[in-house]
């Protein structure tokens, strides 16, 4: 995984602030491959409760993480009971790393 402990802590903290302390965070995509270089940070945030405004919440999460990581590009994917589950959610969970 190509994140430092400090970066992972920033991400977990942002997820707790935006989605609550029960939110689970998964890193997926190129950042889980130690052999690759660069790339954005792809995150799956999994919540057991419905998310009232998912687009706004995902944007808030991405902005907080980007500020904390000095402008690093962040993509946020949400999974909650009130949201449509897509194949990308299963890929992120199966290939991702829990933070």
Please sum up the structure shown:
By secondary structure, this protein is α+β, with helices and mostly antiparallel strands. The chain is 39% helix and 19% strand.
Describe this structure in words.
- This protein has 99 residues and is of the alpha+beta class.
- It has 3 helices and 4 strands; from the N terminus they run αββαβαβ.
- It has helices spanning 5-19, 54-68, 87-95, and strands at residues 24-28, 41-46, 74-79, 97-98.
- It has a 4-stranded mixed sheet with strand order 3-2-1-4, with helices on both faces.
- Helix 1 packs antiparallel against helix 2 (54-68).
- It is globular and about 35 Å long.
Structural category is alpha+beta
Shape: globular
Q: Give the total of beta strands.
A: 4
Kindly provide the radius of gyration, computed on alpha-carbon positions and rounded to a whole number of angstroms: 13 Å
Q: Counting H and I runs of at least 4 residues, what is the number of helices?
A: 3
Q: End-to-end span in angstroms?
A: 10 Å
Strand content: 15-25%
How much helical structure, as a percent, in the residues? 25-40%
Q: What's the mean pLDDT score?
A: 94
């Amino acid at each position: 995984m190509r994140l430092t402990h400090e970066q992972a802590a920033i991400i977990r903290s942002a997820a707790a602030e935006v989605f609550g302390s029960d939110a689970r965070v998964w890193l997926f995509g190129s950042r889980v491959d130690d052999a690759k270089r660069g790339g954005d940070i792809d995150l799956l945030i999994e919540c057991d409760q419905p998310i009232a405004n998912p687009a706004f919440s995902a944007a808030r999460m991405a902005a907080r993480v980007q500020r904390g990581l000095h402008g690093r590009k962040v993509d946020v994917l949400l999974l909650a009971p009130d949201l449509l589950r897509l194949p990308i959610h299963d890929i992120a969970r199966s290939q991702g790393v829990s933070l």
